[in-house]
Amino acid sequence: MGSKPSTPKAKQNAKASTVDAKKSKEKHAKDDDNQLKTSSNSPKDVMISYSHQDKEMMAKLRESLEDNDITVWVDVVGLQAGVDFLGKIGQAILNAKLFISLLSTSTVKSKYCQDEIALAYISQKPIFPFAINTQQEIYDCMGTGMKLQLSGIEWTFALKPETFENDFAELLSRLKAELEAQKSDEKSDVSEKRMLTRHTSKSKKKKDPRTQELSEEFWKKHFDKEEVVEWERFKKDFSKYFHAEMEYLFTEDKEKGFLWANLKEEVELLNDENSVDMLPKKNLIDFTVRYGDTLSLWESVEEFGKEMFAMQEVFGMDSSVRVQAIEHLGQFQSPRVIESLRDLLYNEDPNVRAVASVSLAKTGNSEKLTIKRLMKALNDKDRLVREAGCLALGHIKAKEAIPALLRLWRNDFISHVREAAQAALELIGGDEVEQAMHITKVLADEIRLLTLEN
To answer: pTM of the prediction?
Structure first.
């Protein structure tokens, strides 16, 4: 049976439909092109990190999220000349409420995706892995840093097109639960501890009892009643006891070496008469108390590794992202993080020096070396660094800095620095500060009166 000839009206409708489709396509293309330009001004619910080899799945995921009233930021333009990749995308990560990693064998090989996950981790973004390859396929390609940052997180898998709707529904449920929790937090006084512990969605996988042992249990099992053991002996016994966990996470010996070198400094070893590095039992126990909670020995090492590898990634990033990432390091109280922040006070970028000062104060660390480094900031040629140094010293109530702060309050030629010095002195308080400030104000009033009389 032949088809009916098209009527003028049918042709007109078909033409209108084609025009509408073209306009819709052009609108989406325009939105995509403008997205990088506007990302910093329009925070979204979710930021999607993905490899551009998986752009079809990304588009499907993005559409499904938006259909469910979840606002999305995603880099649809890709790496093009003139695009400030890490600056724009880094800002989008910092602005977004949640972070989705579209995980595939391509994602984990991408340096950009590695940087994005590290920044999300440092910035305490809830991370939601959405995997389109099996976990084993992905882990075979994944580096240690990414393994650590994604460990303990519950993954959602979308391995087959026909199950995508169900897989997505599982992810959506988790996303909405987290968004609701954040709304609730905004309306109430949420402790810093809660914000730290709700960093990620935790895995439901049953844990090995060994990984739940406290440091005292491990110590008694291996070293009995000794109070101090050789560092190399501890390393050997730890590596043997947690052999499966170490081999699963660390793909190269140099990565294990990086962990051990940092951990060695973290636990503050002693030296015996033969200059042999010795680990005190007390130092190991203290190491496992993190952010007010006592973790198991393995969990403590794993969390420490996450911090170290994430910091390594962040410090190698583009400076525009690094400055903002450093700002978030203040939430980590690890001695290695504190030492890294101290070192950043000598960075050539004044923005890095200023933010490192503030972050160092946020750690609450008031050791002599911290105060000494912050006091150097008071002589910095950059006024923002001097201002940040003042506020940092005031925050940690560094009495040793009172004379230097008084000097700045009286003499600095920048009013903002003088105001910061005054605020710091008021935070520190005490008789010495009150007396010195009173004398200065009395003298200033007398000088003003003399000036008026003349």
So the answer is: 0.66
